[in-house]
Write a structure and sequence with these properties.
Length: 276
């Protein structure tokens, strides 16, 4: 029997609206119909990321100074030797609701969602938070909330210059030697999706750096799945573990067989294109 919106609770009051309850076959059909749209959305998101990787850059010529746990550092220092830098402006400072015990509730939700940074670091990417709070307060907050991301103190006009003087936002930068470029900016509801490794990489100029991506010629790309590792096992410039390569190849082949597709694993163990 299908339960409709007009169904009542035992106490006689109308139940809140809910979708119909159907048999397994009907549920499967509805799920597959929506899945088709979700796959189209995924592919559109991939295309948007590809366009983002071709966006023009803006040179950053002004010098910026931050306070860190060990003293003053520059914007270039925030890269920690990597080529890509993601900077989230979190509101934790006098005048912010929650000060000095807590950062802004929204910014704190973002911080709570940040995945283990080792995976970003393995893709030549550094994530940092910046605020106007003194380092002593930031250190206490990070310890109490168990946050691990590097967090620096803004000392100049960095926030105003990059669109985050009065609201939260995420800026992306790229380094070529000592030259720094601004490559992307996301704020407002765009920040809601931030926190996961993939979403962070998708807003960087190099992307996920996997072979299936549509990236400009010469961009670094490695086989999908193969570079993944436990967060405590990444070693710089290490070749993918052969055992993991074999395991991921078997998993991909089984996945494609389940979908009735021919395997696209080539001689180097990668897939020719990522599925939606």
């Amino acid at each position: 029997m299908t339960i409709t919106a007009e169904s009542e609770r035992d106490d006689g009051r109308l139940a809140p609206w809910r979708p119909p309850v159907v048999a397994a076959q009907s549920w499967e059909e509805a799920w597959r119909a929506l899945l088709t749209k979700e796959k189209a959305h995924t592919l559109a998101r991939d295309a948007l990321a590809a366009e983002r990787r071709r966006m023009p850059w803006m040179a950053v010529d002004k010098e910026y100074v931050f306070e860190g746990p060990t003293g003053k550092v520059s914007l270039l220092d925030l890269f920690a030797g990597r080529r890509q830098l993601i900077v989230y402006r979190a509101f934790f400072e006098p005048g912010v609701f929650g000060w000095p015990d807590h950062a802004c509730r929204g910014c704190s939700m973002v911080a709570d969602q940040v995945a283990h940074l080792a995976h970003l670091n393995a893709r030549d990417t550094t994530l940092v938070f910046v605020s106007r709070a003194p380092q002593a307060d930031i250190t206490l907050l990070k310890a109490r909330m168990r946050w691990e991301m590097p967090w620096f103190t803004i000392t100049d006009s960095f926030d105003a210059d990059f669109g985050v003087g009065e609201w939260h936002g995420t800026n992306v930068f790229f380094r070529e030697g000592a030259r720094v470029f601004r490559t992307y900016f996301i704020n407002n509801r765009g920040d809601e999706q931030m926190g996961g490794t993939w979403n962070y990489l998708d807003i960087t100029p190099l992307g996920r750096q996997e072979a299936w991506e549509d990236s400009p010629a010469g961009y670094p790309q490695t086989p999908a799945y193969k570079w993944w590792n436990w967060h405590d096992r990444y070693v710089p410039d290490a070749e993918p573990d052969q055992k993991w390569v074999e395991v991921s190849d078997v998993g991909e082949a089984a996945f494609r067989a389940q979908k009735g597709e021919p395997s696209t694993i080539n001689s180097c163990g990668s897939c020719s294109a990522e599925e939606g």
